[in-house]
Structure formats: structure tokens, C-alpha cells
Request: fold
Amino acid sequence: MKNILGLITKILLGLALFILVVTNLAIAYIFFAPDTFPKPFYPLYALPQQMTPTTEEGDEHGKGEQIDIAHLPPGQGLMVDTGSKIVNLVDPSGRKYLRVGVVLEFAPTDPAYFEMNEEEKKAFITTFNQEMESRLPVINDILITLFASQTFEKVYTAEGKEHLRQQIKEMINQQLPEYHVIYVYFTEFVVQ
Reply:
């Protein structure tokens, strides 16, 4: 009987130690692995609307504050749906294609956006959407050109999709420097 109790105690202690090690490894991965790696959740290291001190006109003491839109986390920006695209992939047979829906999230062009009241925000969003509508042909050209240069092997994996997401973000930020893409969302992604 003592042998069985001793064995059960050792098993329980070993199990507790194993759970402790796995939990610590998971926490270390979530906090220290790059955010480009898949994680169950992404911790925010600062408040989404981080305030950075700046001197504004008429503020003699430099106490004015504005939001740092260059480091705005996903989910805080303005969404632009570019619609669904169907393109042929680079393939010798010419029979592989990609159908993808893309929504781009842009940082507001005015840092005061987060301090605006609801009426001002609606007016700002309307103006922003009109600006984006006039730039949609440039955005669509970037997307179609990029998608058409892909191969099946590049885009069918999760890493391939993430790499494509980063390429879209970089290319649009280069072509439209007055705007800043925070994140790229795929609302549809079919490779055949």
C-alpha cells in the first residue's frame, strides 16, 4: 500500500512540475516571441492610444499631448475594404488562381482623431473614405500586381500568407506615403 501511495505521490509531483514548466514556456513564448509568430493572443505593451508629449502652438509649457499614430495597434484604425480579387498565379499550366478579399486598416491621418467628438469623427471618416476612393485604383493595382506574381507554393501556407500580408503593407506604405497601413486583413483566401 505504501508503494502505491508513494508512486501516486511521485506521479502527481511529476505532473505538477510538468504543468509548471509548460505554463512558464507558454508565457515566455507569448511575451518574448516576435509578434509575427502565431500566438493565442498578442499582449499590448502600452495602451492603444499611447499619449506622447509634444509642444503644440499656444502651449508655452509643452504640456500638450497627442497620440502616437505611427505605432497604433491593429483594431484602432480606419478600415478600407478593397473588395475581392481573382488573379492567375504564376504557374506553367496557367490553371492555378487566387481569390482573395482584402481589407486594409489605416492609421488616421490626423493625430487629433481620437480626441474628436462623434460628429467630428463622422465628418473625418467621410472625408477619409472619399480620399481612399480616389486612391483605390493605385491600391488595387498594387494588390493585383503582387498577387499575380505569387506561386501556389508561396501562398498556400500560413507563413506564405503572413509574408504576403507584410508585402502588401510595405508596398502600399511606399506608394502612398501620406497614409500608413497598420494591418492587412484577408476576408477571403482561396487558392485553386
Summary: The CA atoms of residues 58 and 64 lie 9 Å apart.
